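ASSEMBLY PREDICTION REQUEST
Request ID: AP-0331
Submitted by: J.K., bench scientist
Number of chains: two
Total residues: 226
Priority: normal
Notes: Please return the full assembly, not individual chains.
Input sequences:
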Amino acid sequence: KAGVTQTPRYLIKTRGQQVTLSCSPISGHRSVSWYQQTPGQGLQFLFEYFSETQRNKGNFPGRFSGRQFSNSRSEMNVSTLELGDSALYLCASSSQSGTNTEAFFGQGTRLTVV
Amino acid sequence: DQQVKQNSPSLSVQEGRISILNCDYTNSMFDYFLWYKKYPAEGPTFLISISSIKDKNEDGRFTVFLNKSAKHLSLHIVPSQPGDSAVYFCAATGSGTYKYIFGTGTRLKVLA
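STATUS: Completed
Returned structure:
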């Protein structure tokens, strides 16, 4: 069974640009979450989707947005990039509709904003 | 407000000995807890979890203990192996929140 796939693995963007990251969950998983990892802040929750609906959103500015498609694949978009957006963006999928279950992470997309 | 805390940024243990990683939380609404292991440039790998209705869960060399009254959980690795060297994150969640709150991680180094 294939794991969570994130593309691209690495990305370099310029301040002010926008970026779209993609995540394909484990087959059969309908819940997809996104996290930002930075050296000082650890893993911070961005948002979670289940059956194309956003069920929760973290404390990030509106420049961060996401969506989920009918095949459970998800994308997140960051507009007007800032230097502080440089981070590892991680996607996780889980099989259950609730939260009391383990989530499986992809390898992440390393975004560098210059 | 750090709701999940891992107060030890790093830990060194001799191969074959026990590694004990600690995690404290403040939110009494958390009812499910997980441990993840992370190597550099990779995503976190799920290790073990525990529900708040239990106080212990074992899986091979890994055991997680939960002390609800102290709002404390710990991960025991016995025996520790050099391949266990990684950053370990604890995470917590509550029913209906659809998100994990992660600690800042503990870097474990197992010395051969």
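REVIEWER COMMENTS: Chain A has no helices and eleven strands.
SIGN-OFF: pending second reviewer
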